[in-house]
Specification:
alpha/beta; Arc Repressor Mutant, subunit A; D-Maltodextrin-Binding Protein, domain 2; 3 domains; two-stranded antiparallel ribbon; 9 helices; about 40% helix; rod-shaped; disordered C terminus; LysR family transcriptional regulator; DNA binding
């Protein structure tokens, strides 16, 4: 028993006419009659009383009509889902974010994307910088928002730039540096620092040490955490300052000042990235939607 034979049978059962079924399906009357005779043989029971006009269904024929109609409808839904999945218009996306610049556009972009593709379901997960790249490498995430600095250390990742931004220092608004528009790295030599633990985010941890080393000092680390909100709380409490990527300005509270570093390599790109080996067909749709989205200019702040 196959779906096509059941479709022929349902067509006959609905019209109670081999002639009408042949007209609707574009198959000869004799071919349809032969298919149904074979079906009756396989099932070991009569389905249609042929010497009646119009045709009549036996009790077994009526049961098959009801069940076959359900089965055909289900098979069509399955085929539609497979076709939608093949072109990416149905499925699931796991999206990672850093908790900074995405605040400007991601919530609205996600709502608009769901309106365009209501059968693609997405989940959001916050990571630190190094964690998000590693999760993309392992395909624990489908797409993620990350930074271009050292992206080449993750050879399977590819991405598109959304905007350029700068490295900054975050201080409390009462700090002597708070009124400055830019800060020279050398002036930070005697400042207490807070930063991510290396295990939590070795990319930003290493970057902080590298920047300071280029200016001849080792940062005085007074506290560490794996959580960005905890580190910003420490800065707000006056425990120390922190070198951060500029997008963090979007989540810095009103008590904090985010000041650009006067540093030769301060520019980097904020990117949407994914693993080149990931076969999730919804990824290109999301990236295309994101690329056309009217992002706020990050450097306007």
């Amino acid at each position: 028993m196959d779906i096509q034979t059941l479709k022929y049978y349902v067509c006959v059962a609905e019209s109670l006419s081999f002639t009408e079924a042949a007209s609707q399906t574009g198959v000869s009357q004799s071919a349809i009659s032969q298919q149904i005779s074979e079906l009756e043989k396989n099932l070991g029971t009569q389905l249609i009383v042929r010497n009646k006009r119009p045709l009549q269904l036996t009790w077994a024929g009526k049961v098959l009509f009801e069940e076959a109609s359900i089965l055909i409808s289900s098979s069509e839904k399955v085929l539609k889902k497979v076709q939608l999945a093949a072109n990416g218009t149905t499925g699931y996306l796991s999206i990672g974010f850093l908790g900074g610049i995405e605040k400007v556009f991601l919530p609205q972009a996600m709502r608009d994307f769901r309106n365009l593709y209501p059968d693609i379901y997405g989940s959001l997960h916050q990571y630190n910088w190094a964690e998000i790249n590693e999760a993309l490498m392992k395909e624990e995430l489908d797409v993620g928002f990350t930074l271009s600095h050292r992206l080449k250390d993750f050879p399977d990742l590819v991405g598109k730039s959304l905007r350029s931004d700068v490295l900054c220092v975050v201080v409390h608004h009462s700090h002597p540096f708070a009124s400055q528009k830019t800060i020279d790295v050398s002036t930070l030599a005697k400042e207490p620092f807070v930063m991510f633990t290396r295990k939590a985010d070795y990319l930003l941890n290493d970057l902080t040490y590298t920047i300071c080393a280029e200016y001849g000092f080792i940062p005085n680390i007074v506290n560490q955490s794996r959580d960005l909100s905890a580190l910003l709380f420490m800065v707000e409490a006056g425990i120390g300052i922190m070198i951060i990527p500029g997008p963090v300005r979007e989540v810095a509270g009103p008590e904090l000042r985010v000041i650009e570093l006067s540093y030769p390599n301060r520019y980097f790109d904020v990117m949407v990235a994914w693993n080149r080996n990931n076969v999730n067909t919804s990824i290109p749709l999301f990236v295309e939607h994101l690329a056309s989205y009217p992002h706020k200019t990050f450097l306007d702040n």
